[in-house]
C-alpha cells in the first residue's frame, strides 16, 4: 500500500514537471536593460543598459522572429511565423505566463498604450489580428498580404500596418477595430515612423527585385499622398525620432543617418555589420549589428560610438526596458 | 540456327571480354578525368578569386576596384562578377524578400566566416549548369561584396569529350590487335581438336592413320599425342585381328582340306585295299582331333583373355602338379629316349588355380619334349625365387630359337618353324595360353634361347603368404 502511494506520487511529480512551463533567470525591475532578440541563436540576451554587462541569456530554443514589450514593461512577448502561438514571459520572475494560441504566421506585434489591446500581423491569414490583454481574439482585419510593420500613434487611436509584399499601408481604427483607408507604398517596405505633428508617415524598405531601396518615402497621413523622398542609402529599415532629430538605420550600407525634422540630412555614420535594429534611450542609440553579433552604442549628440556589446547569435531586434525604482 | 564452333565461341568470349574491359576503362577514365578536371577548375577559380580579393582594401567597393575586376574578367577564361549589391548578398536574409540572390543566406554565413563558397549545378540566373566559386570581400565583419567566378559545366564536359576522342582510336587499335592475336591463339588451340575430330571420323570409316601434328606441350598437345598413340594402338589391334582371322582360317583350312581330300577318296573308292582305307580314316581322325584341339585352345584363350571364367585360386602344391604332368609324359620321354632331370622344392605352395597351372606345365613340357631331338635332355626345376615368388624353370636341349624372335614368343599362332610344328601337331596357341594364365596369376614368364643352344623358360608365380 505504501509502495503504491510512492509510485502515484512519483507519477504525479513527473506529470507536473512535464507540464511545468520553463522558467529563466529573472530580470530585476529596477534595472534598465537592453533586450536583444538573437534569432539565429534562438536566445534573448538581457544587457545592463548602463555598462552592457550581460544580465541573463534566455535559451528559448524556438524559432521566434520578433518580440514586443507590454506597455507596462513587465511582459515580454515572443512570436514567429513558424510558431503556432505567442509566448508571454514575466520579466521579473523569468517565468512563462501563458501562450496565446494564434496559429502560425505571426510576423509583427504592437499594443495600444494602455495595454488593453494587442495587434498582430499575420502572413498566413493575411490579416491584422486584434487580441484583448486577456488573450482572447477580438477580431481579424483582412489586409494585403504580410503586415510586417505595425505602428501605432501616441494616443493609441490609429494603427498603421505597412505591408511587406502587397505594397500598401493600411490605416486601422485602433479603438473600433476597423479599416479606415489604405494607400500605396513601395513593395518590400519595412520600418516606418509616424510623425503626427507633421502629419507624416516615413516608410523605409529593402527595395524589390534586384533594385535596392535608397530612399525614405514620406506620405501624408491624412490622404496617403507621397510628399517627398529622402535619400538614405542603402535600405533604410529602422527609424527613431528624438529631440535631436530623426535617426534612420540603413542596413544595406551599414549606415546610420541623422535627419533634421524637415528631412534634411544632417549627418551619417558607418555602423555595424548588416545592422537591422535601433533603439534610443538616455541620450544613446543602441544598434544591433546582425552579422557581427553585437550592439553598438552611439552617442546621440556626437554620433560617436561609445561601446560595442556582445550579444547572442544574430540580433535582429532590440527592446529597451527602463528600470523602475 | 547454326551452332557455333569452339573456336568461334572462344574468340567471341575474348571479344566480349575486350569490349567490356574497354568500356569499363572508358567509364573509369571519364570518372577520374572529370573528378580531377573539376577539382582543378575549382582550385583555379579559388586561387583566382582569392588573389583578386587580396587587392580589396576594405570599406565600400571602389570604382577602381570594380574596373580592375572587369579588366580581369575580360582576360580570364572564367566569368568573374563583382557583387556589392546587398540584395545579391542576401543581406535581407532574415526577411522574406522573395529574391533569388546569387549568394544564398546560407552561403552568406560561410562568406561571413571568410571562407569561399563552392557551387556546382544549375544556376537560374545564368540558365545553365555552372561550377562557381564565391570569395568574400570582408571588412572585419562586414560583407561588403563578393567575387563570383564561374565556368559553364559544358566547358568541363567538353574537356571530357576531348579525352574520349583521344581514347577511342587507341582503344580500337588495341582491341583490333588483341582480337588478331586472340584469333591466332584460338586457331593454334583448336586446330589439333579439329584434326582429332576429322581423324576420329576417318577412323570410324576404318582409316587409322591419324598422325595429328603436336605443336605444343600443353593439355591439348598431350591430348593430340595420346590420340595419336590411341590411333596407333587401334591400328595395331586391327592388324592383329586380321592376322588372327587369317591364321585361324589358315589353321582350319589345312585339316579341312585333309579331311575333304581323304573322305572324297574314300567315297569315290580310290582306296584299293582295306589297309589303305584304314590309313585314310586314321588321317581323317587325326585331323579332326587337331581341329578339336585348335577350337578348344581358341576357346580357352578367348576365355582367358576375356576373363569370362575367373581363376579359382587356392593354395596349390605346385611340385605335385608338375610331377603329375611329368608322369603323363613319361611314355613319350622314354620313347624319345630323353633324359629328364627333376629338381623340385616340395615346400612351395603357389597361390593359384590348380587346373590352369597344370595347363601351364603341360604346355611348356609339351613344347620342350616336342622340340628336343631324340637322346636330348629336359630339366625341370622348381625353386624359391624370393620370399613371395617361386620359380619354375624348364630347360631343353632342343634346337633353340633365334634371339630376334624371342619377343614374338607367346603371340597367337606364332611358330618358329611353321611347317614342322604343324606336323608335330601343335596349334600355335600353347604359349599364348601359358602367357595369359601366368599374367592372370600376377606372375612373369621369361624365355632365354638361341639357335642351337636349347631353350630355357622361367615362370615366376606368387606363393601363398604364411600368416603371421
Write up this protein.
The complex is a heterodimer of chains A (325) and B (468). Chain A is mostly beta strands and 325 residues long. Helices cover 6% and strands 52% of the residues of chain A. In chain A, the strands form seven sheets. A four-stranded antiparallel beta sheet of chain A has the order 3-2-1-28, with no helix packed on it. Chain A has a four-stranded antiparallel beta sheet with strand order 4-5-6-7, with no helix packed on it. In chain A, a hairpin with a 6-residue loop joins strand 5 (75-79) and strand 6. Chain A is globular, with a radius of gyration of 21 Å. The mean pLDDT of chain A is 92. Chain B is an alpha+beta fold and 468 residues long. Chain B has three domains: 6-158, PAS domain (Beta-Lactamase), CATH 3.30.450; 219-303, Helix Hairpins (Orthogonal Bundle), CATH 1.10.287.130; 310-462, Histidine kinase-like ATPase, C-terminal domain (Heat Shock Protein 90, 2-Layer Sandwich). Chain B contains ten helices and eleven strands. Chain B has helices spanning 6-54, 63-75, 105-112, 153-204, 219-267, 274-306, 318-336, 354-371, 418-424, 430-440, and strands spanning 79-83, 117-123, 128-139, 142-152, 314-317, 339-344, 349-352, 377-384, 389-396, 444-449, 455-462. In chain B, the strands form three sheets. In chain B, strands 6-8-9-11-10 form a five-stranded mixed beta sheet, with helices on one face. Chain B has a four-stranded antiparallel beta sheet with strand order 1-4-3-2, with helices on both faces. The model of chain B has no long low-confidence stretch (mean pLDDT 87). The A-B interface holds A 39, 65, 123, 146, 148, 164-165, 188, 190, 206-212, 234-235, 251-254, 272-274, 276, 289-292, 314, 316 and B 60, 85-88, 91-92, 94-99, 112, 140-143.
Amino acid at each position: 500500500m505504501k509502495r503504491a502511494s510512492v509510485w502515484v506520487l512519483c507519477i504525479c511529480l513527473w506529470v507536473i514537471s512535464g507540464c511545468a512551463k520553463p522558467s529563466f533567470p529573472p530580470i530585476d525591475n529596477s534595472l534598465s536593460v537592453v533586450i536583444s532578440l538573437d534569432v539565429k541563436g534562438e536566445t534573448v540576451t538581457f544587457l545592463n543598459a548602463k555598462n552592457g554587462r550581460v544580465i541573463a541569456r534566455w535559451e528559448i530554443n524556438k524559432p521566434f522572429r520578433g518580440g514586443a514589450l507590454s506597455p507596462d514593461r513587465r511582459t515580454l512577448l515572443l512570436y514567429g511565423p513558424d510558431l503556432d502561438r505567442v509566448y508571454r514571459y514575466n520579466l521579473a520572475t523569468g517565468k512563462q505566463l501563458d501562450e496565446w494560441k494564434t496559429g502560425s504566421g505571426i510576423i509583427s506585434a504592437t499594443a495600444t498604450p494602455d495595454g488593453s489591446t494587442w495587434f498582430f500581423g499575420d502572413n498566413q491569414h493575411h490579416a491584422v489580428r486584434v487580441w484583448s490583454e486577456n488573450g482572447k481574439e477580438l477580431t481579424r482585419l483582412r489586409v494585403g498580404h504580410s503586415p510586417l510593420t505595425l505602428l501605432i500613434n501616441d494616443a493609441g487611436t490609429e494603427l498603421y500596418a505597412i505591408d511587406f509584399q502587397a505594397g500598401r499601408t493600411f490605416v486601422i481604427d485602433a479603438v473600433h477595430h476597423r479599416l479606415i483607408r489604405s494607400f500605396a507604398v513601395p513593395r518590400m517596405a519595412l520600418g516606418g515612423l509616424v510623425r503626427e505633428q507633421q502629419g507624416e508617415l516615413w516608410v523605409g524598405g529593402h527595395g524589390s527585385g534586384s533594385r535596392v531601396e535608397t530612399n525614405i518615402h514620406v506620405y501624408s497621413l491624412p490622404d496617403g499622398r507621397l510628399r517627398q523622398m529622402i535619400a538614405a542609402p542603402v535600405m533604410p529599415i529602422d527609424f527613431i525620432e528624438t529631440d535631436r532629430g530623426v535617426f534612420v538605420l540603413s542596413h544595406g550600407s551599414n549606415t546610420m543617418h541623422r535627419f533634421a525634422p524637415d528631412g534634411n540630412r544632417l549627418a551619417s555614420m558607418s555602423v555595424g555589420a548588416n545592422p537591422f535594429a535601433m533603439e534610443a534611450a538616455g541620450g544613446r542609440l543602441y544598434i544591433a549589428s546582425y552579422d557581427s553579433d553585437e550592439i553598438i552604442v552611439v552617442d546621440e549628440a556626437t554620433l560617436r560610438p561609445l561601446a560595442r556589446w556582445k550579444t547572442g547569435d544574430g540580433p535582429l531586434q532590440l527592446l529597451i526596458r527602463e528600470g523602475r525604482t | 540456327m547454326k551452332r557455333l564452333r569452339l573456336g568461334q565461341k572462344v574468340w567471341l568470349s575474348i571479344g566480349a571480354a575486350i569490349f567490356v574491359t574497354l568500356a569499363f576503362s572508358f567509364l573509369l577514365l571519364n570518372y577520374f578525368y572529370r573528378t580531377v578536371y573539376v577539382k582543378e577548375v575549382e582550385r583555379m577559380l579559388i586561387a583566382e578569386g582569392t588573389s583578386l580579393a587580396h587587392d580589396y582594401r576594405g570599406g565600400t567597393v571602389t570604382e577602381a576596384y570594380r574596373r580592375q575586376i572587369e579588366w580581369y574578367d575580360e582576360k580570364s577564361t572564367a566569368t568573374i562578377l563583382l557583387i556589392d549589391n546587398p540584395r545579391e548578398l542576401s543581406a535581407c536574409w532574415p526577411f522574406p524578400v522573395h529574391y533569388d540572390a546569387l549568394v544564398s543566406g546560407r552561403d552568406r554565413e560561410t562568406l561571413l566566416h571568410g571562407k569561399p563558397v563552392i557551387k556546382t549545378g544549375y544556376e537560374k540566373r545564368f540558365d545553365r549548369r555552372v561550377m562557381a566559386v564565391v570569395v568574400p570581400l570582408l571588412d572585419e565583419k562586414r560583407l561588403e561584396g563578393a567575387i563570383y567566378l564561374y565556368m559553364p559545366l559544358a566547358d568541363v564536359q567538353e574537356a571530357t569529350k576531348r579525352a574520349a576522342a583521344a581514347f577511342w582510336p587507341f582503344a580500337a587499335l588495341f582491341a583490333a590487335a588483341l582480337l588478331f592475336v586472340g584469333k591466332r591463339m584460338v586457331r593454334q588451340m583448336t586446330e589439333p581438336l579439329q584434326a582429332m575430330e576429322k581423324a576420329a571420323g576417318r577412323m570410324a570409316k576404318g582409316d587409322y592413320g591419324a598422325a595429328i601434328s603436336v605443336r605444343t606441350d600443353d593439355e591439348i598437345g598431350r591430348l593430340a599425342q595420346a590420340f595419336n598413340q590411341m590411333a596407333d594402338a587401334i591400328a595395331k589391334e586391327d592388324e592383329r585381328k586380321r592376322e588372327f582371322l587369317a591364321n585361324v582360317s589358315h589353321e582350319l583350312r589345312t585339316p579341312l582340306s585333309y579331311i575333304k581330300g581323304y573322305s572324297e577318296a574314300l567315297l569315290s573308292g580310290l582306296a584299293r585295299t582295306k589297309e589303305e582305307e584304314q590309313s585314310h580314316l586314321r588321317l581323317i581322325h587325326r585331323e579332326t582331333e587337331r581341329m578339336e584341339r585348335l577350337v578348344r585352345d581358341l576357346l580357352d584363350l578367348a576365355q582367358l583373355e576375356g576373363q569370362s571364367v575367373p581363376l579359382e585360386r587356392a593354395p596349390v602344391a605346385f611340385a605335385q602338379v608338375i610331377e603329375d604332368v611329368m608322369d603323363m609324359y613319361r611314355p613319350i620321354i622314354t620313347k624319345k629316349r630323353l633324359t629328364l632331370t627333376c629338381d623340385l622344392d616340395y615346400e612351395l605352395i603357389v597361390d593359384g588355380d590348380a587346373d590352369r597351372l597344370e595347363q601351364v606345365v603341360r604346355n611348356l613340357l609339351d613344347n620342350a619334349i616336342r622340340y628336343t631331338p631324340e637322346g636330348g635332355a629336359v630339366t625341370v626345376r622348381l625353386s624359391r625365387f624370393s620370399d613371395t615368388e617361386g620359380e619354375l624353370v624348364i630347360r631343353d636341349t632342343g634346337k633353340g630359337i633365334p634371339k630376334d624372335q624371342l619377343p614374338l614368343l607367346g603371340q597367337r599362332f606364332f611358330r618358329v618353324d611353321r611347317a614342322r610344328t604343324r606336323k608335330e601337331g601343335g596349334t600355335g596357341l600353347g604359349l599364348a595360353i601359358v602367357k595369359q594364365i601366368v599374367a592372370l596369376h600376377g606372375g612373369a614368364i621369361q624365355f632365354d634361347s638361341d639357335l642351337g643352344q636349347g631353350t630355357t623358360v622361367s615362370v615366376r608365380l606368387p606363393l601363398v603368404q604364411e600368416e603371421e
